[in-house]
Description:
Distance between the termini: 73 Å
Strand order of the largest sheet: 6-5-8-9
Helix content: under 10%
Number of strands: 9
Order of helices and strands: EEHEEEEEEEH
Amino acid sequence: MGGSQGSRASRSSLALDAGNAHGITITHVKYVTTQVRTRRRLRLIVTLRDLRGRLVRDAIVVVRPLPDAKHTIASTQVGFSNAVGQASLAVPIARRMLGAHLQFLIGARTPKAHTVTLGSVHVPVKKPSLSAATK
């Protein structure tokens, strides 16, 4: 009869809805800097959990400039966490910020809780052009 019907939970049941979460924490931030030089965008993948350790979906995630920082991002970016508790944001990076150490604030909100953490990443330097290197 039946095939392989183990006790696997579906991906959508892994995360708790933001309205039912007990508190919220930013457990992991991944910085994707591979295409910053060409696309001028820094990708952030933010993972959210509640205080009981469960992933949280549909929470609001905000990345905003850090006031009085020497190098920070120019604008605020907003997104929602997905069915596996992760929010992916693309932050625009100015050409002059290549090679700089950026600092910014990362916030997360549910209807009942909020949290803020400091984000910090070194943006890769633009590679010199071949014509400039041969001169």
